[in-house]
């Protein structure tokens, strides 16, 4: 993340008062603390959502979307794809790990009328209009494969607790002993969306991938799942701030000659991303000498 030497961009914590304030980068101490994420954004709580033939509460809607995106599927309405005269119009999801989350899924399925198949530990809903909504809003591209899954735009504008409900119900994740979570998907667009949701709820996540394809997975019925794409990870950070250390050369000076663009936003807060990592900074227009900028 480049910045001018005189730019007033970094937050740091003063030892005496522990208050946050701006400080020019040229006066930055050896150890710098900057916010990793905003405290949270205020969204609009969803009361009820009409989805196909069903009316769902806002919390159940967020949970269902999470299940379908992470551990679910939508049958295509294209009769050529399904080899069915009218298309199937089914929405499904699964869960293979016993615990609190599976109990919550059973309760959700009971409320929304999803049929359970114990042999596969999966639930299905036959609802053509619901399937069409998922195809139109949760898949960006041709078909209905995991590679093109995305978070629907409406989820970025709901209340914080409903976003957290979505993240809690997301299946393709692991939870570490410290409580932080690591999400995974073969869809880069979906991982980008999850990083955005984390940021909205006041958490920071970094994206990375090994570039390797996972070995085949064997299901309970003996069938195997073969992955053809590398898995992308989103790792949630625990600390409330991001630490930069001069001794690790996290901050270096470099000579640059070329165009400079200074973005300006109404609240003065800029959120940028580079190589999967997020940086939160502020507008520098109040400290830059405009005469020195060509």
Question: Could you give a quick summary of the protein structure above?
Answer:
This protein is an alpha+beta fold.
Detailed description of the structure:
The protein is an alpha+beta fold and 294 residues long. Helix content is 22%, strand content 26%. Helix 1 (58-71) runs parallel beside helix 5. The longest helix is centred in the N-terminal third of the chain and has 14 residues, at 58-71. It is globular, with a radius of gyration of 23 Å. It starts with 9 loop residues before the first strand and ends in a 12-residue tail after the last strand.
Topology:
Layout: E1 10-13, E2 20-23, E3 31-35, E4 48-51, E5 54-57, H1 58-71, E6 72-74, H2 79-82, E7 90-94, H3 100-112, E8 115-117, E9 122-126, H4 128-138, H5 160-169, E10 173-175, E11 181-185, H6 188-200, E12 205-209, E13 217-218, E14 224-225, E15 232-236, E16 241-245, E17 269-274, E18 277-282
């Amino acid at each position: 993340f480049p910045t001018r030497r005189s730019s007033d961009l970094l937050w740091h914590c003063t030892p005496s008062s522990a208050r946050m304030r701006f400080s020019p980068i040229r006066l930055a101490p050896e150890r710098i603390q900057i916010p990793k994420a905003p405290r949270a954004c205020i969204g609009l709580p969803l009361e009820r959502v009409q989805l196909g033939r069903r009316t769902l509460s806002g919390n159940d809607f967020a949970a269902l979307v999470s299940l379908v995106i992470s551990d679910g599927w939508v049958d295509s309405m294209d009769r050529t794809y399904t080899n069915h005269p009218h298309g199937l119009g089914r929405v499904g999801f699964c869960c293979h790990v016993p615990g609190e989350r599976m109990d919550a899924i059973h309760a959700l399925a009971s409320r929304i009328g999803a049929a359970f198949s114990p042999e596969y530990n999966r639930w299905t809903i036959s609802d053509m209009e619901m399937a069409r909504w998922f195809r139109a809003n949760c898949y960006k591209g041709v078909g209905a494969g995991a590679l093109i899954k995305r978070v629907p735009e409406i989820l970025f504008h709901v209340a914080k607790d409903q976003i957290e409900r979505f993240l809690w119900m997301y299946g393709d994740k692991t939870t570490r002993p410290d409580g932080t979570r690591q999400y995974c998907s073969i869809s880069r667009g979906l991982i980008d969306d999850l990083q955005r949701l984390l940021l909205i709820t006041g958490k920071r996540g970094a994206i990375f991938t090994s570039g390797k394809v996972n070995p085949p997975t064997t299901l309970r019925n003996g069938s195997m799942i073969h992955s053809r794409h590398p898995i992308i990870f989103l790792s949630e950070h625990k600390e409330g701030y991001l630490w930069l250390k001069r001794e690790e050369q996290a901050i270096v000076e470099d000579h640059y000659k070329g165009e400079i663009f200074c973005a300006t936003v109404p609240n003065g807060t800029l959120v940028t991303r580079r190589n999967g990592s997020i940086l939160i900074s502020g507008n520098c227009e109040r400290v830059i000498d405009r005469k020195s900028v060509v």
